[in-house]
Amino acid sequence: MKTLLMICLSASLLACADPVKKTTQEMELAKNTETQPTSCQEVIEKIARKLDEKSRETLRKTKKEGLALFHFSWGMGIRNSFGLWKDQSPVRLSCAERVGQKDIHPDNASGIIMEEVWKLVNSDNISK
Predict the structure, then answer these.
(1) Which of 1, 44, 103, 116 gives a 20 to 30 Å CA spacing to 126?
(2) pTM for the whole thing?
């Protein structure tokens, strides 16, 4: 009985592993074939265009000062997805230019991006 249970458990784990692997491969393929933004403005526009209605509503309900609450979630996703940690990241350097700096910390760059997306959502000025 114990052996049968182990076989069933192993089979179910193997069945679950394949779709996860396929999804990961599909995400990597999409990531590699999609043109990555090279400026702060391009990232802002891309994120704003791709927001679903629930996310837009969340941003509409959030005060500007409340964006800091998204630092370890949305902000981390921005930093990792758009290469803000890379040396000489063109997006990070472009964000730095927006605030009159030569370079800034990736945390600050993602903060600029989140704030600008927030402004776009709250102005309803998003081109689709």
Answers:
(1) 103
(2) 0.73
